[in-house]
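Handout, section 3.2

Students often ask what a structure token actually looks like in practice. Rather than define it abstractly, here is a full record for RNA polymerase sigma factor. The first block is the sequence as you would receive it.
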Amino acid sequence: MAHVEEVVAGAVVVPDVTRSCRGGALYGLPMFRRSAPAASATADPVTTCALAAAAGDRAALDEFVRTTRDDVRRFLSHLAGPADADDLLQDTYLRAVRSLPRFTGEGPARAWLLAIARRVAADAVRTAVRRPRTTAVDDWDTVAARGVRVSAADEAVLVSSLVAGLEPDRRDAFVLTQVLGMGYAEAAQVCGCPVGTIRSRVARAREDLVAALEPGGARASG
């Protein structure tokens, strides 16, 4: 199937979803429904855009992508690595466009989209060949033991590497709530678990990171 969107210069370009082609399909995708469920009075703007996009509103689809792509890319970068983030971003929006006709707005669209991104990243990790990290977590031990000051950029790389080394469920909960700023309830929808489980995973992730950042600390792990 031809790609229906591509990542170009940091932007996701999607096809005109208001056009149909022979056989009732759009670039091999199911037809978008002709009318969208009415958005509730409390629906957030992203969810409202998603519902309109599901009905074939091209402008709404463009806005949905524009307002969500940065969070999706950041999430994927932490889950699967920055090198693969753009390719996985494209795959995420391809799956989302396919699924939009079934989106009913019962939950926030951002949580729905990030749940798709989480599955995309999980699929990629399962099938990818293991690659060595560009920055070893053990380097932090050497720097800390010597008492050497590191630049903010270097420290950010080290912390990012530690986050990537967290047990996957803890990492996902931590990135969603502490990096992307999602509420615990919304993060629970993304991960498909109770709110209390998200709170526990975030707390344990913090403990892992604090321990790993101590001189001689253990590598962040499950």
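Discussion prompt for tutorial groups: Confidence is low (pLDDT under 50) at residues 1-31, 129-141, 150-154. How would you have guessed this from the sequence alone?
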